[in-house]
Amino acid sequence: MSTLYSWSRLAVRTAAAAVGVESTPTKLIFVVTKRCHSRCVYCDIWKVKDTPGGLDHELSLDEVRSVAQANPFLQWIDFTGGEPTDRPDFVHVVQAFAAACPDLLLVHFPTNGIATKRITETVRELRATLKARLVVTVSIDGPPALNDRLRGIRNDFAHAINTFAAVRRELGPEHIFVGMTLHGHKGSTGSTSSELVEQTFAAVNEALVAKNEAPIGWDALHLNIPHFSSHYYGNAASADADGFGGPAHRAEIAAALRLAASKPKPGVSGMRAVERIYRAEALRYLATGRTSIACSALLSTSYLSEKGEVYPCTIWDKPLGNVRTTGYALMPIITAARRDGVRRAVAEGKCPNCWTPCEAYPAIGASPVRSLLALAHG
Ligand code: SF4
Ligand code: SF4
Questions:
Q1: Ligand 1 binding pocket includes 81 (Cβ within 6 Å)
Q2: Could you report the per-residue pLDDT of 29-58, keeping only the tens digit for each?
Q3: Which of 231, 314, 351, 364 most suits a substitution to test ligand 2, by most atoms within 8 Å of the C-beta?
Q4: What is the reported pTM?
Q5: Does domain 3-239+295-360 correspond to CATH entry 3.20.20.70?
């Protein structure tokens, strides 16, 4: 298939979702493994490998190939973890979908950046074999001392910088981002979230320049608001009633988002507009707990766990069925969930409600009118 055809197909399918047509999802969030050698204070995924049986029954490579072949309609896949590259056959996992999904356009994976050599080799191999656009996000959650404390690894910041630089050399600057979650900052430093964002941006660039690498611009720093979930992050128990540490911390996170929005970014692009919409809605979400853009979970997106379980998303702990019982096809499970009113519950805001980037970006595409309104006010 030509890339133009595939993009046209994505546009048509997104437009169909925008008017509520319940077809096959365009995007899948696939947890390839829960292995992870970080020790983040705000996410319990890394503990899974130390839990008896925690890593048992992950989908084998043969099963992953069956998933890919049973769902050839996918056009955008977030391969997440754990640390995706901690799965030894990760390259083959991605290649299985590339081979089975003729209109696959976007492949994204986040990385903790610890194992620079292995991550870089993974990217090199994928770049050489994938036709789809490959995008990587390296997680950095603060300036060195804070980042290393939050992520629980000595010299984590230095490893992440090395990985960022090496992967950027492989992919080019438009395919790699620093992902900073405004998560564990509350009460942990004498600085506000805005100050920490400034400090992180400066520290990343200081470290890159010290290695004779080009600095990043503000467009390469993506800020995420924190989220909690029991079935994915395993951190629901650590969420306070407010979810954000109270109104003062909510205001701090909002100020940090506004700060990043105010920074100069070169050029104009569709992606820049999507980020503005994301930010505008994140501010609304922080203020009211709601967004004006409807979530597209079970409409144009779905989530598959490392053990084959389908959920609406990373947040809502509502198991819908296992692909091991459906010949690895998603649609029997998604169709049943729609029939049982789960999709309606999402549309009516009767799910936990969130504004996670995994779901926000496709939701923006599937809500053009509300997105344009958010852009106008953002
Ligand atoms: S946030 Fe990411 S890197 Fe940290 S423990 Fe969880 S999965 Fe691992
Ligand atoms: S809004 Fe609801 S269904 Fe959508 S991602 Fe958040 S919790 Fe999941």
A1: yes
A2: 999 999 999 999 889 999 999 999 999 999
A3: 351
A4: 0.93
A5: yes
